[in-house]
């Protein structure tokens, strides 16, 4: 794992506060690392925190990949219940229904069978908004295409709840 690197600093009430952290998280195959950039330009959450950035990046990359799989009909959206708000989950299901039959994210092999190429996160940008809310932009790659997912996470007790998950 690449160490965290503070890219800029500001001055807070109790001393220096970092505005951005550049770090990474392991992808779990081939020693690849997912670049992560954390930005808290408005001092919404105090000093930028590499551990928080990696945690949010990991969660948002997971949700973005699962949303892509839901959209292409390869993952049951019900399994995301409890991780997304009910409204967010219903919007994801609607998006998947709109894409039904489109061939989105699928490859038809010469024998007529359908395959689902892997979706791989490429990078994550984490933005602290304030009040325990963070917005992430996750870039995904599937075959030769690039997609982006906007993910908003809200702190809920000891965990996180996804309040927005939008693919584009």
Q: Explain this structure to me?
A:
The longest helix has 22 residues, at 50-71. This protein has 2 helices and 9 strands, in the order E-E-E-H-H-E-E-E-E-E-E. The model is unreliable at 1-17 (pLDDT under 50). It has a 7-stranded mixed sheet with strand order 1-2-3-6-7-8-9. Strands 4-5 form a two-stranded antiparallel ribbon. It has one domain (5-12, 27-75, 82-98, 116-167): Nuclear Transport Factor 2, Chain: A. The protein has helices at 50-71, 86-99, and strands at 5-12, 15-26, 33-39, 107-108, 114-115, 120-130, 133-142, 145-156, 159-167. It has 168 residues and is α+β, with helices and mostly antiparallel strands. It is 21% helix and 43% strand. A hairpin with a 5-residue loop joins strand 4 and strand 5.
Topology, element by element:
Blueprint: E1 5-12, E2 15-26, E3 33-39, H1 50-71, H2 86-99, E4 107-108, E5 114-115, E6 120-130, E7 133-142, E8 145-156, E9 159-167
Parallel strand pairs: 3-6
Antiparallel strand pairs: 1-2, 2-3, 4-5, 6-7, 7-8, 8-9
The end-to-end span amounts to 29 Å
Oligomer: single chain
CATH class: Alpha Beta
Q: Would you list the SSEs in sequence order as H and E? A: EEEHHEEEEEE
Keywords:
Nuclear Transport Factor 2, Chain: A, 168 residues, two-stranded antiparallel sheet, alpha+beta, 7-stranded mixed β-sheet, globular
């Amino acid at each position: 794992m690449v160490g965290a690197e503070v890219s800029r600093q500001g001055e807070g009430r109790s001393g220096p506060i970092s505005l951005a952290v550049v770090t990474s998280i392991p992808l779990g195959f081939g020693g690849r690392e997912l670049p992560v950039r954390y930005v808290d330009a408005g001092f919404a959450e105090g000093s930028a925190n590499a551990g928080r950035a990696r945690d949010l990046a990991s969660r948002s990359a997971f949700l973005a990949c699962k949303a892509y799989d839901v959209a292409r009909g390869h993952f049951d959206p019900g399994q995301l219940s409890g991780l997304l708000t009910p409204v967010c989950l219903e919007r994801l299901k609607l998006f998947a229904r709109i894409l039904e039959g489109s061939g989105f994210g699928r490859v038809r092999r010469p024998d007529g069978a359908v395959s689902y190429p892997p979706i791989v996160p490429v990078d994550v940008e984490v933005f602290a908004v304030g009040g325990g809310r963070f917005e992430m932009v996750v870039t995904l790659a599937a075959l030769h295409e690039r997609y982006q997912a906007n993910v908003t996470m809200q702190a809920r007790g000891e965990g996180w709840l996804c309040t927005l998950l939008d693919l584009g």
